[in-house]
Amino acid sequence: MEILHPMLAMMALSATMILVLLSSRLPAIIKNFPNLQGAKHSDELRAHYANTNFRYITDNYNHIFEQPTLFYAICLYIYIAESADDLHIQLAWGYVLLRLVHSIIHISVNNVAARASSFILSSVCLIGLVGREAISLLFSI
Q1: Which domains, ranges and CATH numbers included, belong to the chain?
Q2: CA–CA separation, 131 vs 31, rounded Å?
């Protein structure tokens, strides 16, 4: 059951990023409402942003819905297989916390070295979760 807690925390981070994205876009959308058809793609809205850093928010929003899909899948698999142990829980929380750090860096200072470091470390946590389950499955056959 504890493996679901980091998964819920990751969902909360995703929901938070949706709110951040909406709050950054709504002023431009409201301001240009009669002409929204001209912004068929999010790139076209960027010209109307007062702050050019809003692109970081959009990019982070996209990131938060890419790799974490594997995180959700492996957490559900671990839960259904009832194979969660302390290391699974630590890796899952490590993944969530590192993705939180990645998001904070990405939407604020966007220091690529720091952002890449948190991304790589979170990826190692995710690979650890998947790898442990794959090894367990291979050796239980």
Answers
A1: 4-140 (1.20.120.550)
A2: 49
Give Cβ neighbours of residue 18 (< 8 Å, ≥ 6 apart): 61
Q: DSSP for 36-71? A: GGGGSSHHHHGGG-S-TTHHHHHHHHHHHTSTHHHH
Tokens linked to 16: 């938070």
Task: State both tokens at 3.
Answer: 């493996």
Which residues, in sequence order, are CB contacts of 35 under 8 Å at separation 6+? none
**How is residue 99 written in tokens?**
């993705």
Chain segment 22-76, per-residue pLDDT in tens: 888 777 777 766 766 655 666 666 665 666 677 888 889 889 999 999 999 999 9
**Long-range pairs of 30-34 with CB within 8 A, sequence gap ≥ 24:** none
Q: Which amino acid is at 41?
A: H
Query: How far apart, in Å, are the Cα atoms of 75 and each of 54, 59, 91, 108?
Result: 31, 25, 10, 29
